[in-house]
Write a structure and sequence with these properties.
This protein is an alpha/beta fold. The chain is built from 15 helices and ten strands.
């Protein structure tokens, strides 16, 4: 059962403070002018693994008993959660096993190995990697990338930081894979400021979260196309949010706090990687800019208010992939 309270997020922050970076939040002149409102970017790329995922993974592992840690750790991941689990293991002197997609980013695979984890490449998408991890886990503790109360509480510390650094925030936009960052951040922010609108953005190839969210919020018109078939990413750009089958409990919990969930295409995401790099001189991966792609596509339909914060959730993109995108979209 997934049950997370604001107190759980506060407890997670206390656990994590000695280990992680409180990431920067900055106003973007470029995007503020583009959208005629104040746009702020929350740079989770500042983390030492260049992704927010260390928050949830470390909070989960710190919550385990010594007996549980001794049984060993195993995870399944497209890449960033893998690095989070690997770094948490290094900090706590545990060597985890991580099942990663065969198509995972080279930079994510390499970084996970360098952090000391045993990497097993299996599966064409996250769901297949997850199933393989379950089949080999034995007595090991499975560290889920999103559907876990301690993971969600850890990711929710992003929301605490946004509320603290931008108390006048009116809206927050978050990329969505399994929904851990979305749910945790929305819960935390709305506990401190109930008026804030929170929007989630998924990749259309794995639009199950969007569809199920809108089935719950039946009065709200679904902004994504309903006839898009679930598919694998051809470029690997969306590996960080390529969760084909959503967890009903995650969607149900998110519906209590989140205003809307929408879809963007791989092309939308590709363009935003390049636009962000040009505008802010910073690098991000596909899942990292999905929220920004959603803002571009839907801001006229959304109530984003005077102060909008977009979470840039990760920066682990292969250089050759980035180079190809620059050739196409520069």
């Amino acid at each position: 059962m997934i049950k997370v309270s604001f107190a759980d997020v506060q407890q997670a922050e206390k656990r994590l403070n000695p280990f992680i970076t409180q990431t920067s939040l900055s106003r973007s002149d470029y995007f503020s002018k583009k959208f005629s409102t104040q746009v702020f970017l929350k740079w989770e790329t500042d983390q030492n693994i260049k992704s927010f995922k260390i928050r949830g993974a470390l909070n989960k592992i710190l919550s385990l008993t010594e007996e549980e840690k001794a049984r060993g750790l195993i995870a399944a991941s497209a890449g960033n959660h893998a690095q989070g689990v690997a770094l948490a293991g290094r900090l706590l002197n545990i060597k985890p096993r991580v099942v990663m997609m065969e198509t995972a980013s080279k930079v994510k695979i390499s970084a996970t190995k360098k952090l000391g984890a045993e990497v097993i490449l299996k599966g064409k998408n996250y769901d297949e990697s997850y199933n393989h991890a379950q089949s080999i886990k034995g007595d090991s503790i499975f560290i889920h990338p999103f559907a876990d109360s301690e993971i969600i509480a850890g990711q929710g510390t992003v929301g605490l930081e946004i509320a603290r650094d931008l108390p006048e925030v009116d809206s927050v936009i978050v990329s969505v894979g399994g929904g851990g960052l979305l749910l945790g951040s929305a819960l935390a922010i709305k506990a401190l400021k109930p008026s804030v609108k929170v929007y989630g953005v998924v990749w259309e190839g794995t639009a199950d979260f969007c569809r199920n969210f809108n089935n719950i919020r039946i009065k709200e018109k679904c902004l994504c196309q309903k006839d898009i078939p679930l598919q694998d990413s051809k470029s690997g750009l969306t590996d960080g949010i390529a969760v084909k089958k959503s967890f009903p409990e995650m969607v149900k919990n998110a519906s209590q706090y989140v205003t809307a969930v929408v879809c963007v295409s791989e092309e939308d995401i590709s363009k935003q990687i390049i636009e962000l790099k040009k505008a802010e001189k910073k690098q991000a991966e596909g899942s990292g800019v999905a929220g920004l792609a959603g803002l571009l596509k839907y801001y006229k339909k959304w109530d984003i208010g005077k102060n909008c914060c977009v979470v840039i959730s990760g920066a682990n993109i292969d250089e050759e992939v980035l180079s190809q995108l620059e050739k196409v979209y520069s």
